[in-house]
Amino acid sequence: MKILCVCQHGANRSVVLATLLKLEYGYPDSLSCGVDQNSKETLEMLINWADKVLVVDQYVLDRLTNLGLFKDKFLLINVGGDRWGQQHNSELQQLFRDKLKEFKLND
């Protein structure tokens, strides 16, 4: 399964989520990106590539929707805005692990 993880800038939350999906959950085709750092065309291409799109907060979901890119393959894994300040923060990793328990990605 191909999974796209989307946050605001593509620098922290989506990177952590994609890394966890690759290393701990067995989804090697997991990519990260930022809604404010990529063009609509690039986002559209990545969304079309993915089987599932994991969106990390409501702001990002709203931006994608406003760009006309919303698809039913989106899953909101709401961890809120980036407050961790560093990649691979252990608190953020655990928050994603806890949130992923709520979702069945293979559905």
Q: Main traits of this protein?
A:
alpha/beta; 4 helices; 107 residues; four-stranded parallel sheet
Notes on the protein architecture:
There is one protein chain. The chain has 107 residues and is of the alpha/beta class. Helix content is 38%, strand content 16%. The chain is built from four helices and four strands, in the order βαβαβαβα. It has helices at residues 13-23, 40-49, 58-66, 90-100; strands at 3-7, 30-34, 52-55, 74-76. A four-stranded parallel β-sheet has the order 2-1-3-4, with helices on both faces. The longest helix is centred in the first third of the chain and has 11 residues, at 13-23. The mean pLDDT is 93.
